[in-house]
């Protein structure tokens, strides 16, 4: 039962990360179609950057302390990329350069979205595996 609860926790953290990345993509799409000005778009995106990075770090740490090494290795590249962006101070969007980098920012978030969906499906697989294994031991 404990293992199932940890997989549920991982699942909901991944859903939260997906929500954050989709929110960033929506802000960039609104900017592209002139529904929002660059300052508002950049401030909305910059407001959720640090929660995204912290959530990903906590998720990777939870994978490590619960002994799910494979999932920790899978989430490692995404964590490394976020740490690299933060140490180079490239994690925030600049209001003056947002139109020049709009396609790059959208592409970056689409790749993050695809990677998170992959992690979500792997996590869902392990959660179902855990439920079936518990059910098998109950018989």
Strand content: under 5%
What's the end-to-end separation, in Å? 15 Å
N-to-C SSE string, H for helix and E for strand: HHHH
Major sheet summary line: none
- How many helix segments? 4
Q: Gyration radius, to the nearest Å?
A: 17 Å
Mean pLDDT: 93
Structural class: mainly alpha
Binned, the helix content reads over 70%
Query: What are the segments in which pLDDT stays under 50 over at least 5 consecutive residues?
Result: none
Inertia-based shape: elongated
Extended strand count: 0
List keywords for this structure.
single chain; 139 residues; mainly alpha; 83% helix; elongated
Describe what is shown at a glance.
83% of the residues lie in helices and 0% in strands.
How would you characterize the overall build of this protein?
With 139 residues, the protein is mostly helical. The chain has helices spanning 2-32, 38-65, 69-87, 102-138. Helix 1 packs antiparallel against helix 2 and helix 1 packs antiparallel against helix 4. The two termini are 15 Å apart. 19% of the residues are buried. The mean pLDDT is 93.
